[in-house]
Amino acid sequence: YIDMLCAYGPIILGYNEPEINRAVIEQMDKGFCFSLVQPVQNELIKRLIRIVPSAEMALLVKTGSDATGVAVRIARGYTGKDKILRCGYHGWHDWCVEVPGGVPKAIQDLTLEFPYGDLDALEKMLQENRGEVAGIIITPVGHPLARPIVAPPEDYLAGVRKLADQYDCVLIFDEIRTGFRVAMGGAQEHYGVIPDLTAIGKAMANGYSISACVGKAEVMKIAEKKVFISSTFFPNSLEMVAAMKCLDILERGKVIDAIWKRGEAFLASLKKIVEQSGVPATVSGIPPMPFLTFDKADDRYQERRTRFYTETIRRGLFIQPYHHWYIAYRHTAEDLQYALDTIEEALTIVAGEYPA
Questions:
Q1: C-alpha to C-alpha distance for 259 and 282, rounded to whole angstroms
Q2: Averaged pLDDT of the chain
Q3: Nearest to residue 267, comparing CAs of 249, 285, 279, 281?
Q4: What is the pTM assigned to this prediction?
């Protein structure tokens, strides 16, 4: 298969990367789960501080949900306030999960959701909860479930930054998907807006389970005293050496530039194919994160969607309708052309069977 889900984002390079494999095996022979901090942990933290614009301190954790959860706890500890305003998918933990089963209402009520791209709606929510909001957490690039990907409108992120300052709350960027992909320093580097805290992960170690909460020292220092964050497996060094080697490859090979270039060409071709097909569908995304969604033009859009994705998987293209796709470094020009040809064939079938 040509896999454009890339394990839902961690695979930035490709599967079975020899350099990363060798580094992990070498560390395995040395040991990887100890009682004390290992030198590689400090090396990786220093590296993150160098790469990510908002990073003056860092805490290494395991998953995206860990990283956003740590950021929210730090924001609450730093401000002494409880409510969180969120925009986007931030993981499965109680404070943010979108399916409320099993989560006490008292916890649900502490997190409020605002629409991406609407500063007026955000300010209204801040006004209605004045003095209670600990933090605003947002994905810099909007990537809602099964809906078009949205790049930030001009001055939007700067506007969110201004509102966070105005209402004395911590600004958190959830860069689990965009970190080390939109730019080495993430969307904050690309768009030039610096948050107080950042959650990063996924592409950081090309598939190994590691993430981090990084941020301004003034805010992060609360974790030294008032806020408890710990886990037996946070210091596991296999993931850390994988991250160090992955970052080596990303930095020396101009990987992100290559991904953007291929992604730009892919998006341009995809838009032409969809337009020519006549199928009511929308191409969206940024070059590293393309997507295709089916418009609710009539009551047959679900049938179109199901048939399209059935035909693509039959032809060896692994994509799905609820999550955007990714361009990985090891996707060759031939791989991406095959993906485009497959999409065109599938859309031709959809157009014939379910005309708009």
A1: 22
A2: 97
A3: 285
A4: 0.96
